[in-house]
Amino acid sequence: MATTSSKKENVRIMFNSIAKRYDFLNHFLSLGIDRMWRKKLVKLLVAHNPLTVLDVATGTADLAIEVSKQSKAVITGIDIAEEMIEIGKRKIIELHLENQIKLQVADSENIPFATGTFDAAIVAFGVRNFETLDKGLNEMNRVLKHGGMIAVLEFSRPRHFPVKNLYMFYFRFILPSLGRLISGDKGAYTYLPESVKQFPDGKAFVNHLAKTGFSQTTEKRLSFGIATIYTGIKT
Which of 71, 83, 103, 212 gets the highest tally of CB atoms within 10 A of its CB? Predict the structure, then answer.
């Protein structure tokens, strides 16, 4: 991915370029496991009975739609990639969810809502794309009500043989090649393993949550550590 402009702008351009193939690639490259991971996040979320939910880096709204299946909460989704939002809006119309889910183009690090607006803030596979991680987490904290919940689903790195070795081989060689072949984007699926490698997963990310004002933090590793769900409560 080009480095002549900001990470944020590069991410916006990249996701706009793969938007039409994004859903297919997500499910194909994860063998459909990403759906199960989202369901697990939403199960944790609805246990807190939020009435208003902010879905940050919503993409094509898969996570927001899953929330709507398990909850009557009103969901607002934001993303910087205009093409992703447009596809998400079409999916919401097809599912007749316009009264429950609203999407808009917005910057996750400059969220355009007042302090204390939402009961919960969620993000799936988006925090590693923040230009400044703590700024994005601080913004999510700001728009939450006191006692509000954050739930983050993100790729992580398996720690034990043989899953660790198989995972790294797949991420370094198989996934970029398949992603390029199907999406036609040379950089997007090279960026993915690079961003996962650089992301402070596990306890390091839990420390970022604590640093940005969240307590009662949890870390739930999924599928042998390929992904992790993190939660916290605004203090």
Answer: 103
Listed in sequence order, the residues at least 6 apart from 100 whose beta carbon sits closer than 8 Å to its beta carbon are 68, 72, 73, 74, 75
Q: What are residue 152's DSSP bridge partners?
A: 123, 230
Q: How many CA atoms lie within 13 A of 26 on its CB side?
A: 20
Is the dihedral angle over the CA atoms 47, 34, 188, 165 positive or is it negative?
positive
Q: Does pTM surpass 0.70?
A: yes
Q: What is the CATH number of the domain that holds 89?
A: 3.40.50.150
Whether 75 contacts 53, CB under 8 Å = yes
pLDDT: is 47 or 182 the higher one? 47
Q: Is residue 170 part of a domain?
A: no
Q: Domain span at residue 26?
A: 7-157+201-234
Q: Which amino acid is at 158?
A: P
